[in-house]
């Protein structure tokens, strides 16, 4: 966090409470904060993601792809906002992104890899066949940016089976990881 910017303290009754800037501390301002939060350029913006994946609101859980290596791996981003429909019930007084939706978001990043050349011609569907060794490390909450990496570990074209290893981070801290299996159907 920028030394001149606002500090945040945890409270039992509120998620985060901004404290006033201490006397003698220089005000950073919106321009400085905006530069500090600069987003990486998208390799695939949301429009391209929608061309590749069949998912749509409220189930499209990838906002953009920031790294892509055809047939091998991708890094996708999901901005988690307080307006997400699932926060209405999970949990209203302490909103946490459901773990199954974190895994689904990662699977969609996997779909970005599998639903393009050289794995497929983009035709057909991509379904979960299994997920193993999933571990959650910390909650994902409104305001977080979930950065997910999916790496192809095996592809059996004859059977249409794809295996991937996935890991996701928030603020550089690992939040979830696991091994994924998918079935490609034409």
TrEMBL record:
Subcellular location as annotated: Cytoplasm
Domain of life: Eukaryota
GO cellular component: cytoplasm; membrane
Keywords: Cytoplasm, Lipid A biosynthesis, Lipid biosynthesis, Lipid metabolism, Lyase
EC numbers on record: 4.2.1.59
GO biological process: fatty acid biosynthetic process; lipid A biosynthetic process
Gene Ontology molecular function, alphabetical: (3R)-hydroxyacyl-[acyl-carrier-protein] dehydratase activity
Gene3D superfamilies reported in the protein's UniProt record: Hotdog Thioesterase
One Pfam family, short name: FabA
Alphabetized NCBIfam families for the sequence: fabZ, PRK00006.1
Protein purpose: Involved in unsaturated fatty acids biosynthesis. Catalyzes the dehydration of short chain beta-hydroxyacyl-ACPs and long chain saturated and unsaturated beta-hydroxyacyl-ACPs.
Name of this chain's protein: 3-hydroxyacyl-[acyl-carrier-protein] dehydratase
């Amino acid at each position: 966090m920028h030394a001149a910017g606002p500090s945040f303290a945890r409270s039992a009754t509120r998620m985060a409470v901004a404290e006033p800037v201490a006397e003698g501390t220089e005000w950073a301002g919106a321009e400085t904060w905006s530069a500090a939060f600069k987003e990486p350029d998208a390799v695939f913006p949301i429009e391209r993601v929608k061309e590749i994946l069949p998912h749509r609101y409220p189930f499209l859980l990838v906002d953009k792809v920031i790294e892509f290596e055809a047939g091998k791996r991708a890094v996708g981003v999901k901005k988690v906002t307080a307006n997400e429909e699932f926060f209405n019930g999970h949990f209203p007084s302490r909103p946490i992104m459901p773990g199954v939706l974190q895994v689904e978001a990662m699977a969609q990043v996997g779909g970005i890899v599998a639903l393009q050349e050289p794995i497929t011609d983009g035709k057909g569907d991509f379904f979960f066949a299994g997920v193993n060794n999933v571990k959650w490390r910390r909650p994902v909450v409104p305001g977080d940016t979930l950065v997910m990496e999916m790496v192809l570990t095996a592809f059996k074209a004859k059977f249409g089976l794809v295996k991937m290893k996935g890991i996701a981070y928030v603020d550089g801290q690992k939040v979830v990881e696991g091994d994924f299996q998918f079935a490609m159907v034409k």
